[in-house]
Each structure stands twice: as structure tokens, then as C-alpha cells.
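Internal tracking record. Fields below are filled automatically when a chain is submitted to the structure queue. Please do not edit lines marked as system-generated. If the sequence contains nonstandard residues, flag them in the REMARKS field before resubmitting.
Queue: standard
Priority: normal
Entity type: single polypeptide chain
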Amino acid sequence: MHIEFSTDRNIDGKERLADHVKGVVKHALSRFTDKITRVEVHVGEEISKKADSSGDKRCMMEARLEGRKPIAVSDHASTLDQAVKGAAKKLATSIETQLGRLNDTH
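SYSTEM-GENERATED OUTPUT FOLLOWS
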């Protein structure tokens, strides 16, 4: 499973952040590694002029499964870590659902 990581211009995309995000993704999707060819992760920050800026960090993940259409999810949270973990959990659930449907039809 190949993991691509990118950030928008509002996030400092240091190696440490990339390593952390890749670790979260690998852990969350570990049971599907033989079915996933690539995961793209993009994190960003929505700049807001509102006093309440909770939920301004976002993470979008797209997984490409062998022989299937890509699955994309996103999550918004007050911290990058929460957004990444939330998106990884959503992606794992979506993959599990899709693979479960595939197994049900066979």
C-alpha cells in the first residue's frame, strides 16, 4: 500500500507530520493492505474570520482498491490529529462496507 501525503499552503508539511499521518493510516487500514494499492491523504486548514474556529482542520483521504472505484472520505476537527484519525476511521469503515458487499454478492 503506497501512501501519498500533501498539505495546503496553510499547513507546515514537515516530515514529522507526514510520518505521523502515514502511521495513522497504516494502522487504521492494516487489515486491508493486500486490497489497497494507494491511499492519498490531503490535510488543510480552513481560515475563518469567525471567533469560533473549531472544526477548521480538515483531512481528505482517498483509497484505491484493486479493481474497484476509489473511495473518498473527509473529516473536519479542531486539530489535525483528530481530523486525520477521524478520516482514517471513516475510510476503514467505508472499505469494510464495500468489501463486505463484494463478498455478499459472491
